[in-house]
Amino acid sequence: MPPSVPGLRDELLHWPVTESRDLHRDDWVVALREDQVHRPGHPEEPFPRLVVEHPGAVIVLAVDDDERVCCLRHYRHAAGGVFVELPAGIRDDPDEDPLETGRRELREEAELAAHTWRHLLTLRPSAGITAEVHTLFLARGLSHADRGGFALRHEEAEMEVLWVPMAELLDAVLAGSVTEGPLVAAVLAYDVLGRRGER
Fold first, then answer.
1. Segment 139-149 mean pLDDT
2. Are 114 and 141 in contact (CB under 8 A)?
3. Domain boundary assignment for the chain
4. 32 has which bridge partners?
5. What share of the chain has pLDDT > 70, as a percent?
6. Which end of the chain is more exposed for a tag (fewer CB within 10 A), N or C?
7. Does domain 57-196 have CATH number 3.90.79.10?
């Protein structure tokens, strides 16, 4: 077995940027820009990199007492299909704590509240093109919660809530029939925690 790597962790930093230009920016939360970047100490070799600006998202793995997961069927135009997903939402308010975002999204999308919350994972879905961060929570002790004044619109108005046994969802993930990234990561992490006796 190879030796362990002490202090194994990502390192957040920025190489020098000599120029930036917006390719698309409007009132929505996502923008696209092009940066001219160079390696430290090599300003003579700039190269272009596209950056999708995204404030991040919170995803909730809500599991009931019967080991069923609250899932959504959600149309996604960019990917061209209806995908099995978890309740989730963009962190469009930078002052809102991720846990509060998770609570709000679970209530708005699935009409659920949870008694117990646990941080599950932090993911960077595509570090080559965006600084977007996904924060995933495990929610247990579920109960009905009113959506309040929130109204589902556009694609969300067609969402379907379904309860899937965790074992069945894990099988679907491993078979490749359910492929949405945060759901896959959350289900695999949940399975690992169970194997370690840490749920």
1. 93
2. yes
3. 1-53, 57-196
4. 24, 52
5. 99
6. N
7. yes
Could you identify the residue written with the tokens 């879905």?
Answer: 125
| Residue from 111, 156, 158, 198 carrying the catalytic annotation | 156
Catalytic (active site) residue 156: yes
Q: What are phi and psi of 78, to 5 degrees?
A: -60, -40
Average of per-residue pLDDT across 98-102: 97
Half-sphere exposure of 18 (CA within 13 A, CB side): 13
> How many other C-beta atoms are found inside a 10 Å radius of the C-beta of residue 190?
22
The pLDDT, as a whole number, for residue 148 is 82
Q: What are the tokens at 70?
A: 């609250």
Residue at 131: amino acid letter: A
Rg (CA), the chain: 19
Contacts of 187 (CB under 8 A, 6+ apart): 61, 69, 166, 169, 170, 173
Helix (H, G, I), strand (E, B) or coil at 154: helix
Do residues 93 and 102 lie in contact, with contact meaning Cβ atoms separated by under 8 Å? no
Contact status, residue 51 vs residue 32, Cβ threshold 8 Å: yes
Sheet holding 31-37, edge to edge: 17-24, 31-37, 47-53
AA identity, residue 55: P
Determine the average pLDDT of the residues in 65-73: 98
Mapping DSSP to helix (H, G, I), strand (E, B) and coil, where does residue 119 land?
strand
Reported as a pLDDT band with limits 50, 70 and 90, residue 151 is: confident
Q: Kindly state the helix (H) or strand (E) to which residue 169 belongs, with its residue range.
A: helix 166-175
